[in-house]
Amino acid sequence: MSPDTHRATAAAILPLVGGPDNITSVAHCMTRLRIGLRDRALVQDESLKALPAVLGVVDDDTYQIVLGPGAVARVTPEFEALVEEGRAGEPRAAEPPRPVTAAGLADRGAALREARKARNATPLKLFLRRVANIFVPLIPALIGCGIIAGLAGVLTNLGWLPTLVPALAAIASGFMSLIAVFVGYNTAKEFGGTAILGGAVAAIIVFPGVAKIEAFGEHLSPGQGGVLGALAAAYLAVRVERLCRRWVPEALDALVTPTLTVLVAGLATLFGLMFLAGEVSAAIGAFATWLLAHGGAFAGLVLGGLFLPLVMLGLHQALIPIHTTLIEQNGYTVLLPILAMAGAGQVGAAIAVYVRLPRNRSLRTTIRSALPAGFLGVGEPLIYGVSLPLGRPFVTACVGGAAGGAFVGLFNQLGVAFGSTAIGPSGWALFPLLHGGSGMGPTLAIYGGGLAVGYLVGFLATYFFGFTRQMLADLDTDPDPEPTSTTEPAKQPALT
């Protein structure tokens, strides 16, 4: 897509979310444009979902518009620029004509999402989503450094370019050695504190001089507690800063508040949080290793089967701190290849839907456009556009993910442990990031076998159990035989 296309997409979205004056914040993750709104009532949900570039919407603590990988990173800057132009009184691009689409399944999917969201908007889950927002901006660096680390490992094993390998290792390791600082910075920013103070407190964790400090009868080690310690330290700094803002006189605020914030939170970090977070981090690593070593097949079945619902609810990002902790400890996270099997089940289910509904041109077009992203592990287009609105195929996709997860988990149980050196990619995109102690050959073969099992079981489960007779009768028709003139919505299928 050209830059003009990305700007046109941004220009089409802006008036449908209430215009520039209704926007309070703009950000994006790997697939979603995340917008803070002043007045939610000004958003035109159905018109947004009708835009060709929009794969779905999620109404959460921020309003999230699913644009897909790659596209969202290019549309977001254009959207921000249009917001600024609008606030400055500069002319904006005219809204393009509203396209005509088959909206039946999308409407049903939106209703399901709203019902599930209402049931799941608990304080704990909202807090977990805020924690996820801390780590999402770090994913691009994790991906880039992970791939570079993998390249360095390949060159080392092959004995090629020995003078380049140390440089690649330094590039790959630099970010990870200071990731606690970035986590602290984002934590303070997310929870309403001064971001740089959060980073300053978290920097204590990676400072080499902490090795001279004793807490709970043991000398601390640089990096102890990792990202969990950094998150806790920065959150404490936010609480201390808020107390200072409330009680410190304005004339002394610039001097006293940052000093007390760093001092109090820093001492608590050195003499408590680093040790406690280190124990929690060690427990997470030990539990993950034990779980897959003793119950790998069953654990993989459960994790692979339940991951799609987490993605649907946006809660999958709450696992990022756990993945990051495992990468800090072991160099890779053993959980991600298993969770990636959920995407394989989704792909298999979508292909079965494509085969079972040969007359439904609209839905088959949606599947063809979303499958490439699905093979690369981005499941949201297929979830929101295909399986979730249909109901049963969403369940059968989870069955495929469970089968693939059980396959990968079984080999972990048999001693062939491996994982991903970074988080973010999935599906085929995860191959360059795989690492294990049994060599690249077995690692790639097992992961590829898991994907194949997920595809096959997801396809078979959906083909044979994904539809009732009434669903096939309602869906296996062309809902838009004359797309240039039809404006009526598609008939709602009977979902049972």
Task: List the SSEs and their pairings.
Blueprint: H1 3-16, E1 23-28, E2 32-37, H2 45-50, E3 56-59, E4 63-66, H3 71-87, H4 104-120, H5 123-135, H6 139-158, H7 165-177, H8 179-190, H9 195-206, E5 214-215, E6 218-219, H10 226-247, H11 250-313, H12 320-330, H13 335-339, H14 341-356, H15 361-375, H16 380-390, H17 392-413, E7 418-420, E8 434-436, H18 440-465, H19 469-475
Antiparallel strand pairs: 1-2, 2-4, 3-4, 5-6, 7-8
Key features?
alpha+beta, 4-stranded antiparallel beta sheet, two-stranded antiparallel sheet, 19 helices, 8 strands, globular
Description of the molecule:
The longest helix is centred in the middle third of the chain and has 64 residues, at 250-313. It is globular, with a radius of gyration of 24 Å. It has 496 residues and is of the alpha+beta class. The strands form 3 sheets. The chain has a 4-stranded antiparallel β-sheet, with helices on both faces. It has helices at 3-16, 45-50, 71-87, 104-120, 123-135, 139-158, 165-177, 179-190, 195-206, 226-247, 250-313, 320-330, 335-339, 341-356, 361-375, 380-390, 392-413, 440-465, 469-475; strands spanning 23-28, 32-37, 56-59, 63-66, 214-215, 218-219, 418-420, 434-436. Strand 5 and strand 6 form a beta hairpin. The model is unreliable at 90-104 and 483-496 (pLDDT under 50). It folds into 3 domains: 3-85, Gyrase A, domain 2; 133-282, no CATH class; 305-475, no CATH class. Helix content is 65%, strand content 6%.
